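quick one: protoporphyrin IX containing FE bound model?
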Amino acid sequence: MPVVAAALAAVLLPWLWKALVHLVWRPASTGRRTGSSWATPYRGDRRDAAAASGESLDRGSHDTTTRVMPYVRAWTSLYGKVFLWWSGPRPVLNVGDYDMVKRILSDKSGLYVKPDPGPSIMAMLGNGLIFSEGDVWARHRRVVHPAFAMDKLKMMTGTFEASAREVIIGAWEARVEAAATTKEATVEVGEQFTELTADVISHTAFGSSYRQGKEVFMAQRELQFMAMASMNKVHVPGLEYVPTKNNVRRWQLQRKARGTLMAIIEERLAAAKEAKGYGTDLLGLMLEANNAGDGGQRVMSMDEIIDECKTFFFAGHDTTAHLLTWAMFLLGTHPEWQQRLREEVLRECGGAGTPLHGDALNKLKLVTMVLYETLRLYGAVNVMGRQATADADICGVKVPKGTALSIPFVMLHRDVEVWGPDANEFNTLRFQDGVGSAAAHPNALLAFSLGPRSCIGQGFAMLEAKTTLVLILRRFEFEVAPEYVHAPADFLTLQPQHGLPVVLKLL
Ligand code: HEM
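yep, here:
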């Protein structure tokens, strides 16, 4: 009997010790070292709190924190802008202070890295820009960067315009014209903008091969839904290799995406060999920069290029669709601003038939201001994560190695000390002297993040959104439909939970 007890103890003790360290000692020690109260909340799953606040908002209320981050909101009023909380045994530092945020996001030394996104997202995106780190990230960013230069983006205006005319304007005109007596139609615009941004990214990334590109993106979209569905499930190590129904489908989609992208890229490389060039779309520009390494060496491998193509779709598709959706919401509930924008559009870009130019779009000051205010109140990313790779001191707060850092953009964008007492109001005029002068902190608008890892596609997204809004404002007058329920929800990105129905009238 004593032998059995000894054997059991030998097996269980290391296990118990590990649990003690993880669940008691580490939380207590981290709490002491950061100077945070040991009494800060210890909790398991933040979705419980979010689900608890299911009520919709008044459509004049822009305080989305009550819906998407009720727990951080409550703790901020109790503990201040910077406090520690626990996700199971993991310490998470809430960083609601702008100076600390700037320090973290501007870091170039690798002290703060992105958290592990989990196997399903990694399997979907591989080593693309979003999740790579260190030298791999720097090498990729060098190759991808030229494709997003402003002169190249301006050349894409025609593509943005053609897609918006086909997917949005044509479809909406047909809907209104079909309503013979009322001459108005109610359209759920969120889905339509998602279709538009998929079309735009397929055309701008792959030019003449856009049909194959769109097939890849459809496969990616299904993979994205599968990844999202698996995100909240417990990860059983090794399960990703078992041929379950889901895994078999995932492998099929991954094979399809890779095979099609490989064929498109090989076609481009063959065309370049025959001196026909790589093409002027995002893929072509990226391949051109890729061949400009020392001595004509390729900087990225074929697989890395494939990962970047998938990344464009993942990063640039839903985000831009939601920007357009929320801008329509704000303009549809503020008719005076809708009219002011329309007047500016007609003055700078001409009437409905006039083709658009990148230079005219750059003169649209009011449109830009409304887009910035939309990004402040309804930015796609609510919270951004980082992780300390070593012990650090962030503006006087001691952060032990391994601490997760949670940067709540949605709270920071409503900080009254930085944005003023009307931080929760729609006040476009705060941006009239430019984005850097809109608040008490020069980098207060964080929707595209800041520092070396800021969004590479921000110019692309703004130009696409402006082009689409110009075409809509020239052709339609609109208001948010009476049946709309204002329920912003965080499904990886911020979106209206029940869609956005809008009543359209032809001008
Ligand atoms: C309104 C639209 C968009 C918003 C709000 C947005 C937001 C962001 C944010 C917050 C980040 C930083 C993520 C982090 O550090 O964890 C980011 C990174 C990134 N975005 Fe965007 N994005 C938008 C559109 C686009 C578009 C259109 C593209 C490409 C076609 C794009 C490509 C990327 C890439 C590749 C990164 C990673 C950059 C790096 O780490 O070097 N985004 N975006």
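The longest strand covers residues 82-87.
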